[in-house]
Design goal:
The chain is an alpha/beta fold. The chain has 8 helices and 8 strands. An 8-stranded parallel β-sheet has the order 1-8-7-6-5-4-3-2. Helix 5 runs parallel beside helix 6. The longest helix has 14 residues.
Amino acid sequence: MSILVSPSLLSADFLRLDSEVEMINRSTADWLHMDVMDGVFVPNISFGFPVLEAVAKACRKPLDVHFMTVHPENYIERTARLGARIMNVHYEACPHLHRVVSAIRAAGMQAAVTLNPSTPVECLRDIVGDVDMVLLMSVNPGFGGQKFIAHSVDKVARLKALIREQGSHALIEVDGGVDDKSAPLLVQAGADVLVSGSYIFGADDPLGRINLLKSL
């Protein structure tokens, strides 16, 4: 399978959101990654459903919606109504994770579980067979443009081994500091999906950078 690229809308120019989404539509990107932050689970607030709904109408790429919030289960039905393909929830925010994953799938979406940098992959042993994707944060969630945490490469490899051991078909997605230096290492370790924000949206040639990540 070729590498999937999911540009992160968090790094887009919000004064030019229509043209930024149109750039993604023209690109070879596979999905559009959207980070919903509540200022409680993470120390920042990003955007909510008014922005999600507006982008969903304009974007022709599947939506990869990542909830960095407490009680993400409260938003399952509304996220499904957006037409989102994937709903990402944090392991750390879901004490009843299997119930949440089941509800996401029942709503017609793919279910993904996200791990913070300090959360070990071993905690997914009993759920990895029930999810479509695992997102590993390679920065501490809450802000764009952070420095890549180097041990994330080894974490990808350990997650890949766990997925194979458990007979899971879950994809591995990585988000945080993904650029032309970190991306090849992540792909070599077993990453399937690369989320990239400032590296893409901050470039003079964002389409070229998406192509570069796709070519790895």
